[in-house]
Amino acid sequence: MSSSSITPVASPRAFFQVLKLHQRVYATLEAALAHQDLTPPQYTALSLVRYHEPVSPAELSRKLGITTQSTGETVKALESRGLITRAPIPNNKRSISLLLTASGHRALSSADQIVVEAEQKFFSRLSPRAFQRLLDGIRVLRDETHPSPPPTDKNPDRHEKVLRK
Question: Taking CA atoms, which of 14, 100, 120, 130 is between 20 and 30 Å from 151?
Answer without folding.
Answer: 130
